[in-house]
Amino acid sequence: MDNIAGQKSSLTWATHISVFILVMLWLIPTVGLLVSSFRDRDQISASGWWEAPFAVELTARGRAATEATPDGDLYVVTGNIFDDEEAQSYFPKGSDDVVAFGTSGRNPTEHPAGQTADLGDGQSLVVNADGSYEFRTPEKPGSRGQRIYFAAESPPKFTLANYNQVLNSDGMGRAFLNTFTVTIPSTIIPILIAAFAAYALAWMDFPGRGLLIALVVGLLVVPLQLALVPMLGLHNRIGIGQSFMGIWMAHTAFGMPLAVYLLRNYMAGLPRDIIESAKVDGATDFELFLKIILPLSLPALAAFSIFQFLWTWNDLLVAKVFLPSDDASKVMTVKIADDLLGSRGGDWGILATAAFVSIAVPLVVFFSMQRFLVRGLLAGSVK
Amino acid sequence: MPVILQGLLTILIGVGGCIGYFFLSNMVLDKVIFPARGENAGRNINRANAVRPWLFLFPALFLLSLYLVYPVIGSFLRSLYGRNPDEFVGLGNYISLFGSDDFQQAFFNNILWAIFVPAASTFMGLLVAQLTDKLSWGNFAKSMIFMPMAISFVGASLIWKFVYANDADIGLINAVRAAMGFGDPVDVVQIPFWNNFFLMVILIWIQTGFAMVILSAALRGIPEETIEAAILDGANPWQLFFKIKVPQIMPTIIVVWTTITITVLKVFDIVYTMTGGNFGTEILPSYMMDFMFRDDGRATAIALVIMIVVFPVMYSNIRQARKEMR
């Protein structure tokens, strides 16, 4: 490409920049979720995740102390607002800078810090930046101290509290185990069944072979939706009902077209010489399959397992229909879509954490097995 | 955890059962039914070899016909009955469906999805594949764009909720709007008509990686000579791409396009999680779930409509596969 060298450098730069922008666009949403899942719940609603490394202004409230010292005809109450128990629940460290304060919940930041506020009836209040306050009142304060609202800078806070709550008290721990329980048998069982069928379709001669291959290709695109009503009805009639047994069978069957198709394509591409010479040496089809075809097809088997794993782990539709809807057998996708989004729609920290818990395992599988996944896709996935 | 034990047991029974079935049936065939000895040894071997493929195929064919072939017929028959499975209504379900506004909306939206998502995903995939082709960090970039493939539609929807949220402190879009000085935050998934496109972006975000991987391999498979010849003839990079490369990978582009179309027609998770089908975003798969467990007649009728929409793609796939086999 030397003859277009003049354009090359500017084009190369444009390429670098546009790819960088695209990668950023693709990554930013996921990064936002990850950052949000580690943030403190009050901070999430006070500032965007992109501001997570910076201090956040939080509004809190507390009460002034009740012990007053007489000063002329007034009583004076002094102390530090960060010593108050209620204020400490927002600012456990207490080292924040107060920005503004007020005495009503409607306008919690009425007065800037350090400025004396006249509250009427001869009362006055001042809250300084370090949290120390001075409250003057003509009457001796009662058993409840004066209400103080204030806004203070809170340093960025990262915590595992969301994870703790999601896994232990929101039932996601249970759902995580359920997802595993659904996924593992549904990934392992189809492999062997499909491998034998794929071998027969690839290397055995019998009438109707072409028709069967066409059938498998056709079934690849049959919408699952068709199977829901009749199969749930059948499961109910034979006594499986909505259960783990039912979903294992459903996933095994729904994965079958892709498994047979991928494995047949791969096996058909194995060198004919090896198979012919093994046959000449007297190997039966069964031995040939177990000792030669199966070991040689490992990359395709791996590719299919990854597809099936990701598909069953991420599935929402089949789980909603073939599993009971009680809490004990909900998988993570159902839990998030039906429970968390409904009842805790506004609790962003919990939502982010739940989502991240559910995508963590597939992401690990994806990054460690990417090679097989790409190879499987290129072998001609139509799913 | 009894369920986990049940799972482990199922793996053992499933895998052990498969091995046992294949091994035993094969042995019975060779040793008992058609033994390869005695006076009929030769004929028996031939007979055994004629039966064996069906032994190997039986479990897979059984599952396929039970879970995928039977339901096509079962769903069709069920769709001819009303909510009560004994009440025959003929085509009544279809007629009332096509007359309902919700169904027409869902159908129209589904067509939008089926046109826009495959087009945008394939275009973006092709763009990324071409841009990263000669880049030193191209593999890293591809890996990042491929990553959403591993994320569930539910997870992806949640991720995008953090972009679309109706709050300038949560949603990126509203934060950008606030920074640029537009007044109040807007809820983008509630803007009529355009909200469909905001939901489609989520699926495009997921599917672009798939298109990119396949098209990237196709671009690398283009013979070098054709490119060199074009450069010698003075083609500029644009001509090189649109007139030399794209025509050569056209068959792959079509495969990618149809594959994504099929996915689009089946995905209900995104609409279900983001809007629950409200605000005019209903599509056929999510519309079907509205009737699932309530009115099986309607639900199966919608499933059949999806099947009919998918049918042309199925037909062309089968033709393609048969052509390749010859």
Automatic annotation (TrEMBL), chain A:
One of its GO terms (cellular component) is plasma membrane. Keywords: Cell membrane, Membrane, Transmembrane, Transmembrane helix, Transport. The chain crosses the membrane at residues 12-35, 175-199, 211-233, 245-267, 288-311, 348-367. It is found in: Cell membrane. InterPro entries: MetI-like, MetI-like_sf. One of its GO terms (biological process) is transmembrane transport. Pfam families: BPD_transp_1 (PF00528). It comes from the Bacteria. It is a multi-pass membrane protein. Residues 176-369 form the ABC transmembrane type-1 domain. SUPFAM superfamilies: MetI-like. PANTHER family: ABC TRANSPORTER PERMEASE PROTEIN MG189-RELATED-RELATED, OSMOPROTECTIVE COMPOUNDS UPTAKE PERMEASE PROTEIN GGTD. Belongs to the binding-protein-dependent transport system permease family. This is Carbohydrate ABC transporter permease. It comes from Palleronia caenipelagi.
UniProtKB/TrEMBL annotation, chain B:
It is found in: Cell membrane. Keywords: Cell membrane, Membrane, Transmembrane, Transmembrane helix, Transport. It comes from the Bacteria. CDD domains: TM_PBP2. Signal peptide: none annotated. GO terms for biological process: transmembrane transport. The chain crosses the membrane at residues 6-29, 50-70, 111-132, 144-163, 197-219, 249-268, 299-318. PROSITE patterns: ABC_TM1 (PS50928). InterPro entries: ABC_transporter_permease, MetI-like, MetI-like_sf. It is a multi-pass membrane protein. GO terms for cellular component: plasma membrane. Belongs to the binding-protein-dependent transport system permease family. This is Sugar ABC transporter permease. It comes from Palleronia caenipelagi.
